[in-house]
Amino acid sequence: MWGIIDKALDKFKDNSTFEDLILEVKKKEIPTHVAFIMDGNGRWAKRRGLPRSAGHQAGVKILKEIVKISKELGIKYITTYAFSTENWKRPEKEVNFLMKLFEKVFLEELEKLNQEGVKVNIIGYKERLPQGVKDKVEQAMERTKNNDTLVLNIALDYGGRSEIIESVRNIGKSLIDSEISLEDIDEKLISQGLYTNQQPDPDLLIRPGGEKRISNFLLWQLAYTELYFTDVYWPDFNKVAFLEVIKDYQQRERRFGGLKKK
Ligand code: FPP
């Protein structure tokens, strides 16, 4: 059922084979921007008789692995869904755990991310986050703002519809203030009002965890993104699985609404 990833997870116990896989993947086009919906942490933990929090902790480990391998491959942007505008509906205990976890991860990983040239960019409605998280987030963005090896967008209290509403509101204001005219409203202007302003749209979205939906993530930006869904839970999605998904992506023909190349 799990297809290529399932096989990939059993393979490559020795490093030389893994290096071969990297070389193979590097021979073809590497996606510039990859987005992730990190789903399945809770079920991963439950299957092991562990609390859901253990699943989120295991999820952080995988995210770190993905950032590392992405840098090695030359991927320029990663956007990852850490907390949605809807996730506030979860039990208070879990929300509190997640907020503490975000704070801890930013604190512990910031220097390493900075040394590796990663630019941390938080996308989402920052105002509602607890002060501790807000502080760490601002610190991380400020500290890494001049880095350009890899941009790591972390979606925190993020919702795709809210993001579009915000952009449209700003455009409406410019219109009322006569700074722009109706004809100026185009795709570029709407994109400029999004958190991902100046960034290319994702080439590839990966959603582990078995659900086949977008869940209010990057609604505007995913218009022509290649989608990859797998039943593997996020904490089981390792770098080998990631390379296998990129190989699948490299087989696809992206037409952006046009016709097949002759
Ligand atoms: C979805 O799985 C996962 C989340 C809501 C949280 C993801 C967050 C992390 C992995 C931490 C990342 C940390 C930083 C600093 C970016 P789920 O709980 O919905 O799983 P389930 O569907 O199995 O219940």
UniProtKB/TrEMBL annotation:
Enumerate the active-site residues.
D39, N87
GO molecular-function annotation terms? ditrans,polycis-polyprenyl diphosphate synthase [(2E,6E)-farnesyl diphosphate specific] activity; magnesium ion binding
Q: According to the UniProt entry, what is the EC number of this protein?
A: 2.5.1.-
What are the binding positions for substrate in this chain? 40-44, 52, 56, 84-86, 88, 90, 207, 213-215
Give me any GO biological process, just one. Answer: polyprenol biosynthetic process
Give me the comment on cofactor binding: Binds 2 magnesium ions per subunit.
Q: Does the keyword Metal-binding apply?
A: yes
Which top-level enzyme class is recorded in the Swiss-Prot or TrEMBL entry? transferase
Q: What's one Pfam family here?
A: Prenyltransf
Does the record carry Transferase as a key word? yes
Give the keywords, sorted: Magnesium, Metal-binding, Transferase
Superkingdom as given in the UniProt entry: Bacteria
Cofactor(s) of this protein: Mg(2+)
| Residues that, per the record, bind Mg(2+) | D39, E226
Tell me the function of this protein: Catalyzes the condensation of isopentenyl diphosphate (IPP) with allylic pyrophosphates generating different type of terpenoids.
Q: How does it assemble?
A: Homodimer.
Family under the similarity heading = Belongs to the UPP synthase family.
Indicate what this protein is called per its UniProt record: Isoprenyl transferase
